[in-house]
Write a structure and sequence with these properties.
heterodimer, A: alpha+beta, Alpha-Beta Plaits, 2 domains, 5-stranded antiparallel β-sheet, 4-stranded antiparallel β-sheet, elongated, B: alpha/beta, Rossmann fold, 3 domains, 6-stranded parallel β-sheet, 23 helices
C-alpha cells in the first residue's frame, strides 16, 4: 500500500543524494519524491510517496545525520497537491474541447499557439490522472508532473520542540541524552 | 593563531586525544604529511596498502574503545580504504578516515588521482564530509569524531581538498558541545518499556539472553551478568558479543548461530523468552526466520531504532544505551530459578561434549581445534586475539573462551578476509602489548604485505597461521553443498617461515600436537617484535556444527559421534 511520509532535512549539499541512495540500497520503491524550501532557510522539506513498510523507512531515514524529523502522514487528514504541465496538440476543432475540460477541472491554459496549448492543472494525484486520461485521446505531446507535496490539516505541524525530540523504535518514546 | 588547513587537521586530532594515525602519503595529502613534522606527539604508522590502514584503525578502535584514524591520499589511496570502511560500518567500529582530494578548482574535471570518495563511501559510512572551506575544517573534524564514537558507532570520512589544506585561517577550536538537530542518540528507556519488559521476564520459564556486540560497546557486561545470575538466565553470545560476558561462566552457552554450539541453538529454538541485548538478529545467527525461536516472546534492546523489527518481530522493543537501560531495569528484577530449563540445557551439553574433537584421541595428526584449544590454555584465556575470516575464525570462536570485553577482534558482518594481520597490528599498537593474530593461509595472503609494517614498527603481533592448504570455509561449502567439486579452493602458499625470516621476523613451523604449547610459549616470550608460527593442520577437517544458510536453526549438521565416524 502507498504511504506518504514527510521529512524535514538540513538544507545542505548532498542531502537529497543521501536520501535517494538510502532508498536504492534498502530496496524501497519510491513512487514520488519532492523537495523544497521551508519557512526556515536551514531546513528543507521532503514529501515521499512509497510502496513499502513506512516504519522501516522512517527508522532508516533517522540514521541519516541530516534528517531531522520524519512523519508518516498517510492516515492523517491532509492536503495533497500535485501540479502538471501538459502540452496538447490542438486544431480549431479540438481547442474548444480542451478549454471545456479545463473549466471542469479548474485548470488553466498557460500558453497557446495555433498548434498546441499548455494546460496547467493542480490537485491531488487522482484528479490529475483523470485529466490526463481525458486529454490523451486529443493528443498529449509532452507532460511533466512535479510529484506530490503534502501538509496535514489543522494546527498539527511537523517538528515539535524546535526539532529536539525524535521518536525511536516503533513509536516508543525514548528520552534523549 | 593563524594556521594552515593541514595544521588545523593535526591540531584537532591532538585535541580529540588521537595518539596514532595509520596512513600512506600521496600528492593530495602531502600538505598534511608535511605538517606532521610539527606534531611529534602524533605517531604515524606507514602501512603498505591503505586497506591495511583502515583495518588497523578498526583494530585499534576495537581494542581500546577509542576512535581509530586512517589517512590516505586522493584517488587510489582513498579507494583502497573502501573495504576497511565497509568492515567498520558493518561491525559498528568508530574510525575517522581523512583523505586528500584534488584542489577545489579541479574537482569535477577528472583530474589526476581524482575520485568522488564521498560518493563512493556514502552507503558505507555513518556520515561523510567534503570540506570546501578551511574555516569549516575544525568544526567538521570535531563533529566527525562525535558522530563516529557516539550512538551506534561507525566510520566517518572527511575528504579535504589540497587547497583547503594549504589555506590559512585564524584557528578557533569549537569548545561548545556538538549539537546536531538530526542526531541525538537515545539513551534511556521509558517507564512503560521497563514495565513491559519486567512482565515478560517474570512470566518466563525458559528465558535466554542473546548477548551481542552492544554489550561490549556499551560496557554493560557487569549489568548483564548481574541480570543473568539473579534470574538464573543462561546466555548465548554472537560472534562479536564474545568477550562481553565470561564464557567459562556456568550460565554461558558459548556462541550461537551457523557455527554456534548445538546447545545454544537448541536453547534458542526451545526458549519461551529471548532477551536480545545489543544484537541485531543477523541471518548468520537466526537461520530460517520462519522457524526461528517459534515459542519465544522477545525483548530487544538496541541503540539503533532501525534494527527493531528489521529481521525479527519482537514483543518489547527498547531503543537506547544497553548499560543505561539495564541500570533502570535491574532494581526491579527479582531473583528467580529455572532449574528444569538449565537441566535440559546440561543434557544437550553432554551430547555435544561427546562429539567434540578436542576430547578425542586423534593420534599424530594436528587439528586446528587442538591448536586453538591449546592456545587458550597456554595463554590462560587472557590474550587479545584478532582473527581473519574463515574456518579458523569459527574454531577460534568455538575453542578460545574469552573472559573480558575487547579481547576478541574479528570481522563479523562483512566477513572480510585480510582483516586479521592489519587489525592485529592496530590492536597491539593501541594496547601497547602483544596480541595474537589467528589467520588462515588464504586470508593471510590477502594482506601479508603488512608484515613490513609490523617489522618497521616492531609490533609484537604473534601470527598463528592455521595452514590447511585450502580456502577451507569455501571448501567446506563445496563438500556439503556442491558435491565435493573443490574448484579454486586448493591454494599453494610460500614457505611462511622463510617469508617471515626475509622480514627478520622470528618464525617456526608446527606439525605435531606436542609442539603446539611450546611454540606458543616461545612466541609469548618475545615481546618486542612480531613472531610467526605456521601450524600445518589437517586439510580436510570441517567446522561443526553447521546450520546451512537459510536452514532451520535446529537443523544442524553435527560432528558425528565417535562410534559413527573414524574422523
Amino acid at each position: 500500500m502507498k504511504r506518504t511520509l514527510v521529512a524535514l532535512v538540513e538544507n545542505k549539499p548532498g542531502v537529497l543524494n543521501r536520501v535517494a541512495s538510502l532508498f536504492r540500497r534498502r530496496n524501497f520503491n519510491i513512487d514520488s519524491l519532492t523537495v523544497g524550501r521551508t519557512e526556515n532557510p536551514a531546513i528543507s522539506r521532503m514529501t515521499i510517496v512509497v510502496e513499502a513498510d513506512a516504519d522501516k523507512i522512517r527508522t532508516q531515514l533517522y540514521k541519516l545525520v541530516n534528517v531531522i524529523q520524519v512523519e508518516d502522514v498517510t492516515d492523517l487528514p491532509e492536503v495533497t497537491r500535485d501540479l502538471a504541465l501538459i502540452k496538447v496538440r490542438v486544431d480549431s476543432q479540438t481547442r474548444g474541447e480542451v478549454v471545456q475540460l479545463c473549466d471542469i477541472f479548474r485548470a488553466h491554459i498557460v500558453d497557446a499557439t495555433p498548434e498546441a496549448v499548455i494546460v496547467e492543472v493542480t490537485g491531488d494525484e487522482d484528479k490529475i490522472t483523470s485529466m490526463v486520461e481525458l486529454l490523451r485521446p486529443i493528443g498529449i505531446m509532452e507532460m511533466v508532473r512535479t510529484g506530490v507535496v503534502t501538509m496535514t490539516r489543522g494546527d498539527h505541524v511537523l517538528s515539535p520542540n524546535g526539532y529536539k525530540m525524535r521518536p525511536s523504535g516503533n513509536g516508543y518514546r525514548t528520552n534523549v541524552l | 593563531m593563524k594556521l594552515t588547513g593541514a595544521e588545523i587537521i593535526l591540531e584537532c586530532l591532538v585535541r580529540e586525544g588521537v595518539e596514532i594515525m595509520f596512513g600512506y602519503p600521496g600528492g593530495a595529502i602531502l600538505p598534511t604529511y608535511d605538517a606532521m613534522t610539527k606534531y611529534p606527539q602524533l605517531r604515524h604508522v606507514l602501512v603498505r596498502h591503505e586497506q591495511g590502514a583502515a583495518h588497523m584503525a578498526d583494530g585499534y578502535a576495537r581494542a581500546t574503545g577509542k576512535v581509530g584514524v586512517a589517512i590516505a591520499t586522493s584517488g587510489p589511496g582513498a579507494t583502497n580504504l573502501v573495504t576497511g570502511i565497509a568492515n567498520a560500518m558493518m561491525d559498528s567500529s568508530p574510525i575517522v578516515c581523512i583523505t586528500g582530494q584534488v584542489p577545489t578548482t579541479a574537482i569535477g574535471s577528472d583530474a589526476f588521482q581524482e575520485t568522488d570518495i564521498t560518493g563512493i563511501t556514502l552507503p558505507i559510512t555513518k556520515h561523510n564530509y567534503l570540506v570546501y572551506d578551511v574555516r569549516e575544517l575544525a568544526y567538521t573534524i570535531r563533529e566527525a569524531f562525535h558522530i563516529a564514537r557516539t550512538g551506534r558507532p561507525g566510520p566517518v570520512l572527511i575528504d579535504i581538498p589540497k587547497d583547503v589544506q594549504n589555506a590559512v585561517t585564524e584557528f578557533v577550536y569549537p569548545e561548545e558541545p556538538i549539537e546536531l538537530p538530526g542526531y541525538q542518540p537515545p539513551r534511556y528507556a521509558s517507564e512503560e518499556d521497563i514495565a513491559a519488559a519486567l512482565r515478560l521476564i517474570e512470566q518466563a520459564e525458559r528465558p535466554l539472553i542473546l548477548a551481542g556486540h552492544g554489550i561490549v560497546m556499551s560496557g554493560a557486561g557487569r549489568e548483564v551478568l548481574e541480570f543473568a545470575e539473579r534470574t538464573q538466565t543462561p546466555f548465548a553470545l554472537t560472534l562479536l558479543g564474545k568477550g562481553g560476558l565470561p564464557e567459562t561462566h556456568p550460565l554461558s552457552l558459548g556462541m550461537m548461530g551457523m557455527h554456534g554450539t548445538g546447545y545454544a541453538n537448541l536453547a534458542i529454538q526451545n526458549a519461551d523468552l529471548l532477551l536480545a541485548f545489543g544484537m541485531r538478529f543477523d541471518d548468520r545467527v537466526t537461520g530460517n526466520l520462519k522457524t526461528y525461536a517459534p515459542n519465544a516472546r522477545k525483548i530487544h534492546i538496541d541503540i539503533d531504532s532501525s534494527e527493531i523489527h528489521k529481521n525479527v518481530r519482537v514483543d518489547v522493543p527498547i531503543v537506547g544505551d544497553l548499560k543505561a537501560i539495564l541500570t533502570q531495569l535491574l532494581p526491579h528484577v527479582k531473583p528467580m530459578e529455572h532449574k528444569a530449563w538449565l537441566a535440559q540445557i546440561r543434557d544437550w551439553m553432554e551430547d555435544a561434549d561427546e562429539r567434540d574433537i578436542v576430547h578425542r584421541d586423534v593420534g599424530e595428526r594436528l587439528f586446528a581445534a587442538h591448536v586453538i584449544h591449546d592456545m587458550w590454555k597456554a595463554t590462560g584465556g587472557n590474550a587479545t586475539v584478532v582473527t581473519d575470516v574463515g574456518q579458523h575464525q569459527m574454531w577460534e570462536a568455538q575453542y578460545y573462551l574469552h573472559e573480558r570485553p575487547h579481547t576478541l577482534i574479528t570481522s563479523g558482518g562483512l566477513g572480510a578476509m585480510g582483516f586479521g594481520l592489519p587489525a592485529a597490528i592496530g590492536a597491539s599498537l593501541g594496547l601497547r602489548q602483544p596480541v595474537w593474530a589467528i589467520v588462515g593461509d588464504g586470508g593471510f595472503q590477502m594482506t601479508m604485505t603488512e608484515l613490513g609494517t609490523a617489522m618497521q614498527e616492531r609490533v609484537p603481533v604473534h601470527i598463528a597461521i592455521i595452514n590447511n592448504g585450502f580456502l577451507g570455509m569455501v571448501r567446506q561449502w563445496q563438500e556439503f553443498f556442491y558435491e565435493e567439486r573443490y574448484n579454486a579452493t586448493p591454494m599453494l602458499s610460500p614457505d611462511f617461515v622463510k617469508l617471515a625470516e626475509a622480514y627478520g621476523i622470528p618464525a617456526r613451523r608446527v606439525t605435531r600436537r606436542e609442539e603446539v604449547i611450546p611454540a606458543i610459549e616461545w612466541a609469548n616470550s618475545i615481546t618486542d617484535c612480531p613472531t610467526l608460527i605456521d601450524f600445518v593442520v589437517e586439510k580436510h577437517d570441517l567446522v561443526y556444527p553447521m546450520v546451512p544458510a537459510g536452514a532451520d536453526l535446529h537443523a544442524m549438521i553435527r560432528r558425528p559421534l565417535p562410534s559413527e565416524d573414524s574422523i
